[in-house]
Every structure is written in structure tokens, then in C-alpha cells.
């Protein structure tokens, strides 16, 4: 037995078997009850039809020669007693009653006069119905010896010497009942046993087949789940739509896809993280080594260095500390964006005002580099709906780059234009430009085009910009020609005032 079958056998198959046995027993019992009901009815109907004429016969045969009543009007018990005894000797199952025309019992040998429970009269409705239908309709009448019970009977009216009434014959009397129930008991014991055995045999066969078919798909699914569990990540349930438990099969396949997808994601995040650590340690090492070198020189040669040399060394140390803190800032920011820990808080704000502020902030740096920094249309106030601090960060990186990669006497311009439902932001410089084949990669982390320039940072600036654009469901494009300049363009949703 395979592992999957072992897992299925104890619980599911056991439950199925229990349900099955319960079903078989229930079926057996219902079968017996139904059979007994109809067999009994069939028997009663047959007996009534067969004996329908008995009462008529009694009247025709016996009341012709002798009256059942004496001259004083009382019942001729001797005659009637003989008659009844004769009849009951032939057929012990019957009980004969003499009724008046109200249904009152005048006489019967089977009735004990001291029996207080015995009925004194019977209902005439079934008797009249029986007579009207000439005994061809199945009808039950009162049983005087068992009040409340209904029995098959034969009846016929008489009219003798001024007396009118009925001969009423119960066809399945007490004696009949006793014999019948003994036989029935035996018969049903045999029938029940036979029927149950046969039903069990057939049911077991059908049950085995059904359980095998029912659990076939389940076995298949369990097998695939086990394979997956054992490390075969490509294991999937084939044709899940055709499975009897399609929802389960499909859910498993979807779950497996999600798990594999998440694993891939985790692997790539892990790879990124490792790459980041490797790059960070490399990036930190250079400025740290420079710092260490200058500090050591200052310590060792403190006495011999001139004041201007000391000043220069301190300046270099200062610049490197600046670089380091900027790098750490950028790394921190990028890692947060990469780890999707930043949720943009979007609100309406004036991008024009923000650009004014940034231009004011970078004015000194631009002047130092002899670069003209300006906003193209300073008076048109454009409102956007975005995260102000993230957009500020992106613009800052783009302006910084534009200044960084533009030669003295160059120009950096910010164009802000309303375009339908968006506001287009364009940062154009007259700088070095970017070769066309390099342009697709400049937004990748650590991507630096011209490594020879001293101005370069750490290749994180544009990667951060790209992440910020993604958080705003927008993209940034670059148009650039080497030696002519570059334009970085992106759109933000305009805010309607
Ligand atoms: P870095 O810190 O090196 O500037 P960025 O991610 O900001 O890194 O930019 C990636 C690369 O794209 C830069 O190294 C540079 O070669 C190129 N680049 C970015 N902006 C400009 C620009 N305005 N003009 C020319 N080249 C640019």
C-alpha cells in the first residue's frame, strides 16, 4: 500500500464504510417493513375476497330450516351455538356474530359474557359498504374481541320472523392471529436474513467499487501533495478541472504556484541584499580608507606640516565624511524603498512652489559651478496629488545630477506644464549627456556611465527616483544626447482645485 493510501485508509475509508453499513442496515429494515406491510395487505385482501360469501352462505343454508330466534324473541342459542361450532371447527380462524340492525351483538360463542372489555356493538358503516359492493371492495370492520382493532370480515343481512340484522363473520380472528404471527415471525426471520445477506453482498461489491472510484482522485491529489512536500516544486495536479474535487485540485495548484513564486521572490530579495552588502562594504571602504590615511598623516606629521597643508587635509577629511554620510543616507533610503517599507502619503500640493524652494536651495551650489539654474514658467501655479517628501527627494536627486553632470556656463532648467489630467515635470540640462546604449540602464542600482568623472556619486540617485516613480504609478523617461545635454521627464496626476 502506498503512503498516500495509508494516509487515506484509517479515516476517510473507515467513515465511508461506517456510512455504508448504516445504509445497508437501514435498507434491510425498510425492505422488511415494506414487504411485511404489503404481504399482510395482500393476504387480507385475498382472504376477504375468498370468504366474501361465507355470511350469505350461512343465511341461505341454515336460516331456511330453523329460525335463529325462539318464540319469545330471544336468540336460539342451541341452534346458533351448533352452527358456530360447526363453522369454526372447519375454519378455526373465523368468529361468527349475530347482530341486530343497529349493529348490537345479540350472540356469539366466542364472546365471554363476563368479559367487560369486549364490545357490545360494531359499526355498521363498513358492513353496509361491504354489502353494497358485494364483497369486492377491501374494507375492514370492528373486531369485538379486540376493541379498537380493524379486521377483514364477511357480512350478510337477514330477515327472519320479524327479526332483522346481520351475520357478521370476522375472518382473521384471534386464533388466526396467533398462528399468523408465529408463522410471520419465522417467515420474516428467514426473509430478513436472506434479504440482509443479499443486500450486504451486493452493497459491499458496489461499496468497494464506489470507494475506490471516490478516493481515486483523492489518492492522486495526495500523491502530488506528497511529491511537493518531498521537494519536487514542479509537482502539479494534471487536468485539475476534470477532477471530481476540482476546487481542491485547483486550489492546490494555485497554492503551489504562490509558494514557488514567493520562494523565487525571497531568493531574489536575498540576492539583492547580498549584492547590496557587498557593494556597501566596497563603497564605504574607499572613503574610510581615505579618511584613515589623512587622519594618520595629520597625527604623525602634525609638527612638520604647514598650516595650509593641515587645512587642505582637514578639508579632504571633511569632504569624505560628507560623502560617507550621504552614501549612508542614500543606502538607508534605497533599502527602505526596496523592502517596500515606504507607503506614499498622497496629498495636494503646489509643485511650482516646491520647485521654487529647491531652486533656492541649489542656487549656491549652481553659482559655485557657474551654472544657471531656473524655473521656466515660474508664475503658473501647478497643483499635483502626490507624496510631497518623496517627490521632493526625486527632484532633488535629478537637480543634483543635472548640476553635477553639466560643465560650467551650462544651464539647468525645470519645466512644469499642465497636460490634460497630469502635470509634466522636465529637468533639462546642457551637460555631458548619456550615450544612447547606456540610457536604459542608468536607473539601475550602482549603474554609473562615465566612471572617469570625479563627480560621480554611488549610482543610487536614479535608482531611488525610479522607486519613487513606481510608488506613484508613473515612470520617468530620459532624452539625452552626448555632449548636448539630457532631459528627465515624468508626470504626476494634477489636482483640480
Ligand atoms: P550617481 O550617484 O553616480 O550620480 P545616479 O543613479 O544618480 O548615480 O546616476 C546614474 C548615472 O547616470 C550617473 O553615474 C551618470 O553617469 C548618469 N547620469 C545621471 N544623470 C545625468 C545627467 N543629468 N547627465 C548626464 N548623465 C547623467
CATH superfamily membership of the largest domain, which one? Answer: Histidine kinase-like ATPase, C-terminal domain
Helix content: 40-55%
Biggest β-sheet description: 5 strands, antiparallel
**Backbone structural class:** alpha+beta
Annotation, overall tally of beta strands: 12
The amount of beta strand, in percent, is: 15-25%
Which hetero ligands occur in this complex?
adenosine-5'-diphosphate
- The run of helices and strands is HHHEEHEEEHHHEHEEHEEHEE
CATH topology of the largest domain: Heat Shock Protein 90
Based on Cα principal axes, name the global outline: rod-shaped
What is the CA–CA distance across the termini? 74 Å
Name of the CATH architecture of the largest domain: 2-Layer Sandwich
Could you please describe the fold and organization of this structure?
The chain folds into four domains: 3-46 and 181-214, no CATH class; 52-170, Beta-Lactamase (2-Layer Sandwich); 246-336, Orthogonal Bundle (Helix Hairpins), CATH 1.10.287.130; 344-493, Heat Shock Protein 90 (2-Layer Sandwich). With 497 residues, the chain is of the alpha+beta class. Helix content is 54%, strand content 15%. It has a five-stranded antiparallel sheet. Bound molecules: adenosine-5'-diphosphate (ADP). Adenosine-5'-diphosphate (ADP) is lined by residues 401-402, 405, 429, 431-434, 442, 447-450, 456-463, 486. It comes from Meishania litoralis. Keywords: ATP-binding, Nucleotide-binding.
Amino acid at each position: 500500500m502506498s503512503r498516500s493510501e495509508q494516509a487515506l485508509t484509517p479515516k476517510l475509508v473507515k467513515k465511508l464504510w461506517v456510512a455504508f453499513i448504516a445504509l445497508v442496515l437501514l435498507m434491510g429494515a425498510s425492505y422488511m417493513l415494506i414487504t411485511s406491510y404489503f404481504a399482510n395487505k395482500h393476504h387480507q385482501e385475498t382472504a376477504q375476497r375468498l370468504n366474501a360469501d361465507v355470511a350469505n352462505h350461512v343465511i341461505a343454508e341454515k336460516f331456511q330450516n330453523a329460525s335463529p330466534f325462539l318464540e319469545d324473541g330471544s336468540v336460539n342459542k342451541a341452534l346458533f351455538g351448533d352452527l358456530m361450532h360447526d363453522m369454526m371447527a372447519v375454519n378455526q380462524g373465523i368468529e361468527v356474530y349475530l347482530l341486530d340492525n343497529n349493529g348490537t351483538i345479540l350472540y356469539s360463542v366466542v364472546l365471554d359474557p363476563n368479559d367487560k372489555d369486549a364490545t357490545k356493538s360494531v359499526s355498521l358503516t363498513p358492513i353496509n359498504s361491504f354489502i353494497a359492493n358485494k364483497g369486492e371492495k377491501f374494507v375492514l370492520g370492528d373486531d369485538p374481541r379486540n376493541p379498537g382493532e380493524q379486521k377483514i370480515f364477511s357480512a350478510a343481512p337477514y330477515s327472519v320472523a320479524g327479526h332483522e340484522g346481520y351475520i357478521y363473520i370476522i375472518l382473521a380472528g384471534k386464533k388466526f392471529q396467533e398462528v399468523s404471527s408465529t408463522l410471520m415471525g419465522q417467515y420474516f426471520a428467514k426473509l430478513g436474513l436472506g434479504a440482509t445477506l443479499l443486500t450486504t453482498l451486493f452493497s459491499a461489491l458496489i461499496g468497494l467499487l464506489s470507494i475506490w472510484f471516490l478516493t481515486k482522485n483523492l489518492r492522486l491529489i495526495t500523491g502530488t501533495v506528497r511529491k511537493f512536500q518531498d521537494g519536487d516544486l514542479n509537482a502539479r495536479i494534471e487536468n485539475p478541472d476534470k477532477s471530481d474535487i476540482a476546487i481542491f485540485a485547483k486550489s492546490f495548484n494555485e497554492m503551489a504556484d504562490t509558494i514557488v513564486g514567493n520562494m523565487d521572490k525571497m531568493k531574489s530579495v536575498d540576492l539583492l541584499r547580498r549584492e547590496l552588502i557587498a557593494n556597501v562594504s566596497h563603497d564605504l571602504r574607499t572613503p574610510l580608507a581615505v579618511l584613515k590615511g589623512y587622519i594618520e598623516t595629520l597625527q604623525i606629521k602634525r609638527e612638520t606640516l604647514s598650516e595650509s597643508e593641515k587645512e587642505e587635509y582637514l578639508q579632504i577629511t571633511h569632504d569624505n565624511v560628507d560623502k560617507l554620510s550621504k552614501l549612508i543616507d542614500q543606502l538607508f533610503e534605497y533599502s527602505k524603498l526596496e523592502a517596500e517599507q515606504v507607503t506614499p502619503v498622497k496629498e495636494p500640493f503646489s509643485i511650482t512652489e516646491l520647485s521654487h524652494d529647491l531652486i533656492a536651495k541649489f542656487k549656491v551650489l549652481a553659482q559655485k559651478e557657474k551654472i544657471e539654474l531656473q524655473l521656466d514658467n515660474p508664475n503658473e501655479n501647478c497643483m499635483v496629488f502626490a507624496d510631497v517628501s518623496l517627490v521632493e527627494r526625486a527632484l532633488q536627486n535629478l537637480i543634483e545630477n543635472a548640476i553635477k553632470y553639466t560643465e560650467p556656463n551650462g544651464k539647468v532648467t525645470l519645466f512644469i506644464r499642465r497636460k490634460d489630467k497630469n502635470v509634466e515635470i522636465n529637468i533639462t540640462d546642457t551637460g555631458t549627456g548619456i550615450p544612447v546604449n547606456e540610457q536604459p540602464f542608468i536607473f539601475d542600482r550602482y549603474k554609473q556611465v562615465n566612471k572617469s568623472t570625479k563627480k560621480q556619486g554611488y549610482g543610487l540617485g536614479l535608482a531611488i527616483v525610479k522607486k519613487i516613480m513606481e510608488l506613484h504609478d508613473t515612470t520617468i523617461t530620459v532624452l539625452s544626447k552626448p555632449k548636448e545635454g539630457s532631459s528627465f521627464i515624468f508626470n504626476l496626476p494634477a489636482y483640480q482645485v
